[in-house]
Amino acid sequence: MSDEIIKRSSINSSNFLRDKIILSVDLGGTSGFALWLGNNLVKSWFKNVNSSKDTKPEKETKYNNCSRLTQQLNIAENYVRENNLKPPFEPALDMVVVEDPFGQYIQGVKVLHIYMGAVIQWCIDRKVSFAKINDKTIKKVFTGNGNANKDLMVFTAQDKYGDHIVDENEADAVAVGYTYLNQF
Questions:
Q1: What is the chain's alpha carbon radius of gyration, rounded to the nearest angstrom?
Q2: Could you read off the pLDDT of 139-174 as tens digits, one per residue?
Q3: Which of 49, 92, 120, 149 could anchor a disulfide with 77, C-beta 3.0 to 4.6 Å?
């Protein structure tokens, strides 16, 4: 993960977004994160928020996973503060954008909605705006193909922002941010 601002792809975002700090998130067992300053990708990463070692009851395990997810949101917030990207009296992030959970396996979709609830609560606590984007829209805007597979998403992310993006979840988080900046 480079701490330099990556400027490999121009985005047609409005002047309104120029100074905004946006965190885009791909929710899942392994979640992807991308931090944007205006239309510039500042940093991206991925983290496994599930714990295969949890032998606790299911409800407690989901709570622990949500806690690990919100820790990553705190990392983004701390990065903004440590690098003086925003004045200290303002919220560190202006917006958190996630891919709208979907899927054919209802149990997985339920878990993703629990994760999204944790993200929404984190945003409410910090007075940060929240948005979600449909997966087909993300794929269409990012790759030109609304049915793009994971390999194409990673390839497109690498082509636009560099070879340091190696994980499909990180690539998806970059795509979420890119789509938000291009569509809204």
A1: 16
A2: 999 999 999 999 999 999 999 999 899 999 999 999
A3: 92
- Burial annotation 4-29 (CB, 10 A radius, 16+ → b, else e): eebeebebebeeebeebbbbbbbbbe
Q: Domain range holding 139?
A: 15-183
Contact 155, 168 (CB under 8 A): no
Residue closest to 121 by CA, chosen among 72, 86, 70, 74: 70
CATH of the domain at 135: 3.30.420.10
Q: Longest C-alpha distance within the chain, in Å?
A: 49
- ∠ CA(42), CA(162), CA(70), 5° rounding? 40
Helices (H) and strands (E) in the chain, counts: 5, 5
Asked if the structure places residue 9 within a domain, the reply is no
Domains identified in the chain, total number: 1
DSSP structure string for 83-118: TT-S-TTS-S-SEEEEEPP--S-HHHHHHHHHHHHH
